[in-house]
Amino acid sequence: MLEILRRVIQEVNAARDLDTALDIIVDRIQSAMATQVCSVYLFDEESNQYVFRATRGLNPDIIGQIAVGKDESLVGLVAQRAEPVNLNNAPKHPRFRYVDNLGEDEYNSFLGVPIIHHRKVLGVLVVQRESRRRYDESEEAFLITLSAQLSGVIAHAKVTGVFSGSAKELPATRFPGKSGAPGVAIGKAIVIYPEADLSKVPERITKNIDRQVQLFQTAIEETRDEISVMSKKLSDRLQPEELALFDAYLHMLDDSAITGEVISVIKEGIWSQTALRRVIDAHVATFDAMEDQYLRERGTDVRDLGQRVLAKLQSKDTKRKSYPRGTVLVGEELTPSILASVPRGRLAGLISIKGSGSSHVAILAKAMGVPTVMGVEDLPLNMLEEKPIIVDGFNGIVITYPNKEQLNLYKSIIKEEAAFDADLESLKDEKSETLDGSRVRLWVNTGLMTDVAKSLEHGAEGVGLYRTEIHFMMNDRFPTEEEQRLIYRKHLKAFYPRPVTMRTLDIGGDKALSYFPIKEENPFLGWRGIRVTLDHPEIFLAQVRAMIRANEGIDAYLRIMLPMVSSVSEVDEAQRLISQCYREIVEEGVEVEMPDVGVMIEVPAAVYQARDIIRRVDFLSVGSNDLIQYMLAVDRNNAQVAELYQEFHPAVLHALKQVVDATHAEKKFVGICGEMAGNPAAAILLTAMGYDVLSMNTTNLLKVKWAIRSFEMTKAKRMLSRVLKMDNAYLIKNYVEGELKKAGLGRLIRSRQAP
Ligand code: PEP
Ligand code: MG
């Protein structure tokens, strides 16, 4: 059974388009289940009906011509209930509807199962036969399993109109994702794809056919040499039949086989890497379809060979050095160093297939003010190269090949936003206080030196979170104490006399160092933040020393902050190391003040122990990005569960209030530096809770200031006490946003639907 399932899925994946895929589905199911009829109905958004799209056994001439609503017929019943309907005498069922010309007169038993993707019934798979025998349990289970596996591929094909990689052009399409950073960008897609991954090679043409042929031939020669060398090296360790594999590889590289085919595709004007991918894909598909398991597995060899040639080709082809104006970077998984590789003025937008709005790359994009959409899972990467594209970072939508109407709408949004930002500029030197005079400090989160100028221009009163790991991530080895000292010193000087909060190295989770790989099953529950640095005191001590020494002669208000703390013993240990650094530095004759030390509250355990923790340190700062993920058990990086990642979740709000109360009971200082602090609606509630500092990315600073200056503390407190009695995140969000709109702040809550 598993084998049949695997084959059908593979064939469907390799299909050219949706109709071919549906045809394969009905054909293979009909024969696998030895049933007389198999049909597929797919949901059509426009008519709100399920359309008859493919069949074996019924009248194929009326494919596409009949459709049923949810409240009619047996197919409608399957969709309505979102569960299988299994009948031995379908024509007797009250929901049975006779359709002229469909040709189902003689069929009595009926089994329909829904095709469900992300809770939506995309379609219905139906099998029918003459005999009045119900389909048995195992048949039903087979169809359910197949449908569950096919739903993702069908959903993808419904959105794109194509199956990944096989079509040459991408139609104009709107792809849903998650908002990563607000704003709109209209530009050209520049795809970043992992090296030597054949499946990620984009569709590209070439004007220089001769050069591409020559590059390809050299790559083939090098691959041949490599294989011969490998074969010789292994000759005394492998059996003759295993060694024969290398001969087979060399044979495949003959002019009469793969090489010849690739060259003829290049001669049609296709880029060598694209040509290679197309030819290898075709060969792999042929092997995959073979009955014989041994032959089927040869498909893997062909792919392996293709990867080898690709690696050679990629080492020849010069890497992209120039990015056009209006570059929209698109990648499976973007990293901070990829962002940094594009010159600032050229980067218009970002699109990541993986991740969600709380992923670190999205946070960085927000700080840089680059509109970003994350988790656009259906976007076919390899068809986007240099294609026109719109990034709607407000709504989390990507539009490929936008039409005139869409372009005009988005151009007007860009204009409006620019005008709005210009209006907000007038607030930059105004106090951040409520209408009735309660003060709340608005600080910024930084990471790159480029954030600094922008933060100061926007009137930042301090740095609430300096993500020092970003500098580590841009390097190819641990930076030395002196290298760190110089960078930290620049930061302290630039913000002087404002306070600067430096967080000690926070790696792990989705923040990787190429030179210090951490491989874990559950990285967010693993070796992260303070856990890593306490296990490596040499890294921690060098960093803390660099921070303290950076302040020599500046005498800035330096604060050191510890990430991912889950117990007081971690705080005690870190404090001991920090004191050790300070003592050593003083002994070395350097005159500096002991910095304030604080702890990030990012783990539920730390919420419950906030009072014990604050007694030991000078301040607390809530890292709501992680706190939400750990409280709600929702991976901040996973687009699939992004809807469940809720800032306004009642449990989160109560925890946030508890942290303020614990800190203020000890008469100490508390802030929040997660993304939530930069959301104007949330900022009103946080102000009412009593947070002394809201630290956010610069882009949101003036928006939050406007919101705070538009409310009275008494009113904000009334809102908070009402919210703390509510039990549903959606209702809380609606209520608070409603109050912002009533206060004339509707422009802060942008949610537009693209045409
Ligand atoms: C947080 O978790 O809220 C935080 C500020 O840290 P980071 O986003 O860098 O994990
Ligand atoms: Mg964090």
How would you summarize what this structure contains?
With 755 residues, this protein is of the alpha/beta class. The chain contains 26 helices and 22 strands. Bound molecules: phosphoenolpyruvate and magnesium ion.
Write up this protein.
There is one protein chain. By secondary structure, the protein is an alpha/beta fold. 45% of the residues lie in helices and 16% in strands. It contains 26 helices and 22 strands. The strands form three sheets. It has an eight-stranded mixed beta sheet. Strands 15-16-17-18-19-20-21-22 form an eight-stranded parallel β-barrel, surrounded by eight helices. It has a six-stranded antiparallel beta sheet with strand order 3-2-1-6-5-4. The longest helix has 26 residues, at 209-234. It is globular. The chain starts with a helix and ends in a 13-residue tail after the last helix. The structure holds phosphoenolpyruvate (PEP) and magnesium ion. Phosphoenolpyruvate is lined by residues 363, 465, 467, 506, 602, 623-626, 673-674.
